[in-house]
Structures are given as C-alpha cells and as structure tokens.
Input
Amino acid sequence: MLFKDVNTGGKDVDIDPSNPDIVYATMWEQRQGPWENGAWSGTNGGIFKSTDGGTTWKPLTQRTARRA
Output
C-alpha cells in the first residue's frame, strides 16, 4: 500500500501490461480548510513506481528517470 500522510491522496494507478509487477501511481497533497479560500497545496505528491506488485514504492525523480 502506498501512503504518504493524511494530506496526500492517490489519483491514478497504472499497471504495466507486459509485467504486472510494475505499477505506477500518482499522488497529490492538498487540503480544503473549513474557511473561505482555505485550500492549500503542498509538495508531498509525485509519481511513484513499484516493481513488486505494489508491496514497496519508490518516488520517481529526475535522477531516477535518467537511469531508467
């Protein structure tokens, strides 16, 4: 399971059709406050990759994208 914190939610999950152990997920950080214009967005989201069917996850960064 992929979990960051209570402010970060999942958006998409894609499974590689040639290898179901490779899974990608996108997440975003946002919270809506109970007051007018109380929404904020953070930087805790991103794109994550699992190579073991979703048991463990690693964030994809510019550094990891260059190595792939």
